[in-house]
Each structure stands twice: as C-alpha cells, then as structure tokens.
Specification:
mainly beta, Immunoglobulin-like, disordered N terminus
Length: 369
C-alpha cells in the first residue's frame, strides 16, 4: 500500500517542486521588463535609495559599507540600451566613494516567478555588485524574518565567482543564510555579459547562471526556521564599496567600476494560481488563504462552495506527513470556515489541501511560536 507521503507527493505539484531534479511543466509568461531603451531611468518602474542608510536605520547600510548612494548621472545612466551603475572614488558628503542603488518597491512587486537579468559586473577588491530582492511588506517581521533573496552577488577580489543566497531566521546576530556559488571555467564576470536567473515557486527557489543550475533553496534547507518566501518581493540593483564581506578597496582597486545591465525580465507561471487570483479559480470551490497568517496557535481557513459538496480539508507538514483533518463531511453551497488549532505543533510551514469529488487546491501557511 502506498504511504500517505507518496500519495501526497503525487497529488501535489507544490511538493513535487521540493525534489531536486524534478521539474513540473511551467508556462512562463512575461509580466514585467525593462530593456533600458530610454534616455533616463523609468520612474514608473524604479526609485532611488540615497545616502548611507542612516535614514533607514541602517548605518553604512548595515554592512560597514563605504559609499554614499546618489541619483547623479555620474553614478547611474542609460546608454546604448543598457543601465550603467558606476562606483567612483571621490569625496562626497563626507564619504570617499559614491555609487547608486535602485529598487522597484511598490512599482514592481511579485510573489513567485522567473527573474532573468543579463549583466556584466565590476571587479576589484572592495567591490560588491548585487542583484537581489527584499519583501515589500515584511509581514513576518523585520530583517531577516521576512526573508531576502540574493539573485546574484559578487565580491570583487573573486571576479570569477557569483553567489546566490537566501537570508532568514531570527534577528542579528542569530540571523541565518543558505547559499551556493558557481565559478567560471575561464575568465571573469567583468569580461562579458551573463544571464542570472532565479525560478521561484511555492516552497522552492532555483538559481541558474547562463542556464546552469547552481543553487536550490527549499523549506527543508531552512528548518527549523519558517519559510518566509510566500509574499511579495521587489528588486534591488546596486554596487556597494567596502563592507564586511568584500573588505575595503586597496591600492590594487581601480575606479571607476561599472555594473552594466542589458535587461531585466520577470515571468510568471500562468497556471500557478496566486492568492489574488482566487476569485477566478474554475471548478466547485474557492479555497482562501488562512487568516491570520502567520499564526499562533490557531487560524481560520475559509472556502466558498458553488454547490452542495462533500469536502475534505487535510493539513500536512512540509515533509508531507499528515497532521490534521479539519473537515470530512458534506457542506451546503455558500461560505464556510473551519479552525485549525496547531497548539501541539512546532513552528514551520504547513500545507493544507481541500478536496471534493472532482477538484482539489493547496495553500501554505506559517506557524510561528
């Protein structure tokens, strides 16, 4: 007899995606892009972050960085269909270096998708270019509880290596990270353009460089900490100078140094139903996101039935083990709510499945104790 775990894996596309090497068919559709064909940065898509981070409560951006970010054309400009972010060694506002940092917050925010960026990177000790993502609302709390996704980072004294990382867990100094890297077999990332990609689905983020896989993050990698990557994130591009990780520039570092971005393209899976799309789900019912989420120790799960139906609602942990049955009976057409009491369970991501005779849906939820 097949185990509940096997049955669950075979019935849930979400959990299939947890297994390295297995990929479900995806129908990526372009939903947002910037090809940088204009003369100036598109203000409908991007905004600048300026200064040293102090106005955000991040002295030296929280990493002992040395630069002052500006919105000057000396530090960011568009030319020949490309974005150029330039780090310079110069006196400016009591700092010895300048650069630029831009983001898409409240102009480009996504939950799940394929994010593809073609870029050429700077090099030299003390340089730290990054293409990355932060949560827009930080619904699970301040950094890093609500997560950080680093699509690509490079430290300039290792110009042939790029890194992909997620940050999560409790606040500093107990913050956690999970990452991987890929090394060019010849040359370095300042010599030519390369395509940096993440494919972010429920309970799975995959990193690729020029199509080559090099990093995977799943809830298992974060355990026992909860998985925060089920909310809207936005993009950030910047070139930092100095910092705890790359160290400071030295006499070998040449300035100016430029990160050049050819394009950024965001795709989403047309068959992956988001919370915002719930009302358009075909079939017999709508299963809503639980509320509150995250929760402790209980939460409400609501659903709408279009007709009289027998409903089963089951809860599984992230390993596919059954932990609760919340409903197993007939319901009239209309709106209904069941309560999930998780007082006997540990913190983490749980998945609930609602089934009728002909349809089923899944949602994930976070228990934080």
């Amino acid at each position: 007899m097949k185990t509940l775990y096997t049955k669950f894996i075979k019935s849930a596309v979400l959990l299939l995606l947890l297994i390295p090497g297995i990929s479900a068919a995806q129908t990526w559709q372009l939903v947002w892009s910037d090809e940088f064909e204009t003369d100036t940065l598109d203000a409908s898509k991007w905004s600048f972050e300026l200064g040293t981070g102090a106005q955000y409560g991040l002295i030296s951006w929280g990493n002992n960085e040395l630069q002052h970010y500006t919105d000057r054309s000396d530090n960011l400009y568009l030319e020949d269909g490309m974005l150029h972010i330039v780090a310079r060694q110069e006196q400016f506002a009591n700092r010895n270096y300048t650069s630029a940092r831009i983001r898409t917050i409240n102009k480009g925010d996504w939950t799940y998708g394929k994010f593809e960026i073609r870029a050429k990177l700077p090099k030299g000790r003390g340089l730290w270019p990054a293409l990355w993502m932060l949560p827009t609302e930080s619904v699970y709390g301040g950094w890093p509880r609500s997560g950080e996704i680093d699509i690509m980072e490079l430290v300039g004294h290792q110009p042939n290596v790029v890194h992909g990382t997620v940050h999560y867990g409790p606040p500093w100094p107990d913050n956690q990270e999970h990452g991987g890297s890929i090394t060019l077999s010849d040359g370095d990332f300042s010599e030519d353009f390369h395509v940096f990609t993440i494919e972010w689905s429920p309970n799975r983020i995959v990193w690729r460089m020029d199509g080559m896989f090099f990093m995977l993050a799943t809830p298992n990698n974060l355990a026992p900490h909860p998985w925060p990557f089920d909310q809207a994130f936005h993009l950030l591009f910047n070139v930092a100078v100095g910092g705890t990780w790359p160290g400071n520039p030295d006499s070998t570092t040449e300035f100016p140094q430029t990160m050049t971005v050819d394009y950024v393209r965001v795709y989403q899976d047309s068959e992956l139903v988001s919370i915002e799309d719930e009302e358009t789900i075909p079939g017999q019912f709508n299963l809503r996101q639980n509320y509150p989420n995250p929760f402790n120790p209980d939460t409400n799960i609501s659903f709408d039935l279009r007709e009289f139906s027998h409903v089963t609602i089951e809860v599984y942990d992230i390993m596919g083990r059954h932990v609760a049955t919340l409903a197993d009976r007939a319901y009239d057409a209309g709106s209904h709510t069941v309560r999930f009491d998780a007082s006997g369970l540990g913190s983490g991501t749980y998945i609930y499945r609602m089934s009728t005779d002909s349809h089923q849906q899944f949602r994930s939820m976070q228990l934080i104790k």
